[in-house]
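Whether sequence alone determines local backbone shape is best considered at the level of individual chains. We regard such an encoding as a compact summary of how the chain folds. The sequence in question and its structure tokens are set out directly beneath this paragraph.
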Amino acid sequence: MIDRYSISPIKDIWTLEAQYNRWLEVELAVIEAFEQLNIAPQGTALEARQKAKIDVEKILETEKVVDHDVIAFIKVVTEYMGDAARYFHMGLTSSDVVDTANALAIKRAGELIEKELDNYINSLKKLALKHKYTVIVGRTHGVHAEPTSFGLKILSFVSESERNKERLEKAIFDISQGKISGAVGNYANLDPQVEEIALRKLELRPCKVSTQVVPRDLHAEFFSVLALIGASIERFAIEIRHLQKTEVLEVEEPFKKGQRGSSAMPHKKNPILCERLTGMSRMLRSYVSAAYENISLWHERDISHSSVERVFMTDATILAYYMLNKANFLASNLVVHEDAMKENIEKSYNLVYSQRVLLKLVEKGFSREEAYELVQKYAMKAWDQKKNFKDLLSQESRILENLSQEEFEELFSPQYYLRNIEAIFNRFDFSYL
């Protein structure tokens, strides 16, 4: 991932040095298992840990000669290990180390992403609570529909993100599997107890069945969840992008002091962060395709997955973390123009109350068809003539004959549409905020 979007602590998981350290974690856990099973003398793991040397540049130079990254790693790390080196990588194949270490990396990255997702959810909840009773026009097909609550609009993103958290928790649990089962996964040169003990030390679980590699559907599941998180953030970003249009201007991205929106037009305040997040969501979805392609490998394994994973595992986790970090910033600092929300409701000539009038007429004894025709007649007239729907209806005899003035006025109150908002909010936990 390019530096522009790589932020700590998640980018630190994917450095070469961190990768080699994870490989060493796996190798040492196996030696500790050997000790526990009396395969290696007591103290071998401690000696190996103390004498292991990770020299990134030397490993890379060695790889140029041997053309195999794990062999280069073993040669350099065990160079001064003495007799303990006999038990280093004993009975293992490269994928035992790489796949188990990747499980550690993805698990740790997932846990960081989960924390950032929690922060985002909390910021959305605070925004939703603040605007629980802020009236905004609801739009369907981009067209004014009926009044609703801006807080309720935000609450939909809370709910979606909470579902994504549940998915992520499951995906982290599922990805927390390694394998120490040898060249074709049949434990020919290792006792299954070695795997069980070593993985327990690493806080991982053995795959029920592995080939030379961990099954790649586990990766596909995890990265599918990241794509869902990205899609949810994109939906939030697109909502802001629309509401920030000049003709709408109900919300705005935060605009920092000294920030500039355009090199040519000094007046511009563009939703650049939301647009960036939209693009990043596209990238996350593309990585899912790569993860799915990696599921089908030849027989016990080929190496077609390796080059792909070196890119998307790093990039997807870094992107998801970055997106959540920025989405949290947006939710925490969103500029909300409540006056504009009220003004925009009036731009459709009170037509947002048409269903309310329709239902009232049905309540008064009109057939639904009769009521619909009457209301639509004046609704279309209001659109065509740019006249107030309420004023037009107030001159219709069938309205005057069936509704009192008080009943008529009540039909045009936006507060009516918020009467059950509390019931929806009660489905969520706000107690810890």
